[in-house]
Design brief:
CATH topology of the largest domain: Heat Shock Protein 90
Shape: elongated
Distance between the termini: 52 Å
Strand content: 25-35%
Helix content: 40-55%
CATH superfamily of the largest domain: Histidine kinase-like ATPase, C-terminal domain
Number of helices: 12
CATH architecture of the largest domain: 2-Layer Sandwich
Number of domains: 3
CATH class of the largest domain: Alpha Beta
Radius of gyration: 29 Å
């Protein structure tokens, strides 16, 4: 039976190895080193803080689940409960001690001081052969806040889409019973409600895209009708007050096979950005044409972008509109490049203004299934 003194000596040995000790202590992540028995021989201060330990002796010679007071460890000891075989930390340690690098998520339920809580970690394990003995180094990243945020986002979008869609349905029923001026007024309101629903769905898809969780729904639709509909709606918005939107396109354009919601988001952001960049009295020109088994849209506005803006225009948090903005051109680039398999580029000159261009290809191959994961 290995004693605490044995693990204190091992810990001191690691501490005396200056390069190794500095590497472990300087890491901002929670670092644990375990021996072949899965017992801790080193734990960084971050680990002690996460586990609520005040002294390294509270961690040495114990398994990670024992340190964090995992409910499975409380029952049988860390690694000995029937549930441990599916534990991310257990699998990472096992692989690390067998010479394998491992990246895995670990979901830990904790019961401490008569309180129940949960911790979610991303665990990276690497093997370490040191002075003739096999060890594993674990790096633990707390991802609980990210997991909670994603869960709340999904609940929020689910609830708000259901609510807005229900109101839209009631307005459509009301539309059937109205006539005259009241029906004309509702005819004006309904497209904006549809736009509201599409905007919410598009925002949800953008968040899914950023988290690599987006699934595309490929279907054929009229790209010209989509563009004309957006232009008609934006002409009624405050963004377009005192400005003009002109659309130029062949009337017999083919349909586009793509994700309609994502294309809607890309075109909407292009048009919004152009309107916001244009002073009253200015005109935005939209030109849509078929090109290379797809479509290219040019969105022109009369305003020149300074070079300092051009250099950062596709950065995630950059914005010319102040703090808290800056997802417009970033989302265009993200969705076009990573999901719609297209391209986006721009040209800006002091004499002619700025033109953003987006090419979207036909996604015929993906259209055979209901959805694809990008």
């Amino acid at each position: 039976m290995l004693t605490l003194d044995h693990y204190v000596e091992l810990n001191e040995m690691f501490q005396q190895e200056e390069l190794l000790s500095q590497l472990l202590e300087d890491s901002r992540a929670a670092i644990i080193v375990v021996d072949q028995h899965r017992h801790v021989v080193f734990a960084s201060q971050v680990v002690l803080d996460l586990a609520g330990a005040t002294d390294i002796r509270q961690a040495l010679g114990r398994a990670p689940g024992d340190i964090f007071q995992c409910i499975n460890a409380n029952r049988s000891g860390c690694g000995k409960d029937e549930n441990c075989c599916d534990c991310g930390a257990f699998l990472a340690i096992r692989n690390g001690l067998h010479g394998q690098d491992t990246d895995i998520e670990c979901y830990m339920s904790i019961e401490a001081d008569n309180k129940f809580m949960a911790k979610d970690f991303f665990v990276h394990a690497v093997p370490l052969w040191y002075k003739g003995e096999q060890y594993a180094i674990l790096s633990l990243q707390d991802i609980g806040h990210e997991k909670r945020r994603r869960a709340f986002e999904r609940i929020f979008f689910h609830d708000i889409i259901n609510t807005v869609s229900a109101v839209k349905g009631l307005l459509q029923l009301l539309h059937e019973d109205l006539d005259g001026e009241h029906r004309e007024l509702l005819d004006t309101v309904l497209p904006h409600f549809k736009l509201c629903v599409d905007e919410i769905k598009a925002q949800r898809k953008l968040m899914d895209a950023e988290n690599s969780e987006l699934e595309l729904t490929i279907e054929p639709f009229s790209i010209l009708e989509l563009l004309q509909g957006l232009a008609a709606l934006m002409r009624q918005s405050a963004h377009c007050s005192g400005k003009e939107i002109r659309v130029r396109a062949d009337l017999d354009l083919d349909r586009l096979y793509s994700d309609r919601v994502l294309v809607h988001r890309v075109y909407m952001n292009l048009l919004k950005n152009a309107l916001e960049a244009t002073a009253k009295g200015g005109t935005i020109h939209l030109e849509l044409a078929e090109q290379d088994s797809g479509f290219v849209l040019h969105v022109a506005n009369p305003t020149y972008m300074p070079e300092s803006v051009q250099h950062q225009i596709f950065h995630r948090s950059f914005s010319t509109k102040g703090p808290g903005r800056g997802l417009g051109t970033y989302s265009i680039h993200l969705l076009c490049t990573n999901y719609l398999h297209g391209r986006v580029w721009f040209e800006s000159h002091p004499d002619t203004g700025t033109v953003f261009s987006v090419f979207l290809p036909q996604l015929y191959a993906e259209a055979s299934s209901e959805s694809i994961s990008a």
